[in-house]
Amino acid sequence: QVQLVESGGGVVQPGRSLTLSCAASGFIFSNYGMHWVRQAPGKGLEWVAVIWYDGSNKYYADSLEGRFTISRDNSKNTLYLQMNSLRAEDTAVYYCARYYYDSSVNDYWGQGTLVTVSS
Amino acid sequence: QSALTQPPSASGSPGQSVTISCTGTSSDVGGYNYVSWYQHHPGKAPKLMIYEVSKRPSGVPDRFSGSKSGNTASLTVSGLQAEDEADYYCSSYAGSNNPLGVFGTGTKVTVL
């Protein structure tokens, strides 16, 4: 069965960096685009970034102002999110989600990893 | 890209129906038949309930149905059950110039 397991969250000081990982299993990872989505405390879901199945295209939310980088290693079935210059407003649960192109839908999601930016 | 507009809350008694609206523009909801609905229980992974406006993934009860008229999509939950209490989010494709798409603001469904 499809499984997505995020890791790498934790408490980090403002201005520091953190890298999240999403380990995928149960499907051919290299055939699917992948998203990162976040939910700040008390807020709704927000798209963070998407990467094409082969890593050829990447798109980011405007609000990130170029601080985050999405990447993937298809040989390791793993998705990454490098987060730099972290701010308090980046505090959120970060989810990875599989993207099914034909229906423009995220059909499977991980359970998320919490990132807390605080001094 | 502005978020799609959903009512903050909706409620119903067990066995009743509840309908949640999701209002966008002709650039997203009204322009494409790629509206999805997700159920989110706090602390758990969001779950896809409806895709392409009205299609149900395997395993989703037929109590959940979706529709669209113009720039507004709707999710109806019939025969409400206690486990349906959750947050629900709509999402829409918004064209090749906005590959991330757009989420709705979210609706908290309460089963009374």
Characterize the largest beta sheet of chain B: strand count, sense, and whether it forms a barrel: 6 strands, mixed
Can you tell me the overall shape of chain A?
A: globular
The span between the termini of chain A is: 40 Å
Q: Alpha-carbon distance between the termini of chain B?
A: 35 Å
Cα-atom Rg of chain A, whole angstroms? 13 Å
Gyration radius of chain B, in Å? 13 Å
Would you write up a description of this structure?
The complex is a heterodimer of chains A (119) and B (112). Chain A is mostly beta strands and 119 residues long. Chain A is built from no helices and 11 strands. In chain A, strands 2, 4, 5, 6, 9, 10 and 11 form a 7-stranded mixed beta sheet that branches. In chain A, strands 1-3-8-7 form a 4-stranded antiparallel beta sheet, with no helix packed on it. In chain A, a hairpin with a 5-residue loop joins strand 4 and strand 5. Chain B is mainly beta and 112 residues long. Chain B is built from no helices and 9 strands. In chain B, strands 1, 3, 4, 7, 8 and 9 form a 6-stranded mixed beta sheet that branches. In chain B, strands 2-6-5 form a 3-stranded antiparallel beta sheet, with no helix packed on it. In chain B, strand 5 and strand 6 form a beta hairpin. Chain B is globular. The mean pLDDT of chain B is 95. At the A-B interface, strand 5 and strand 10 of A face strand 3 and strand 8 of B.
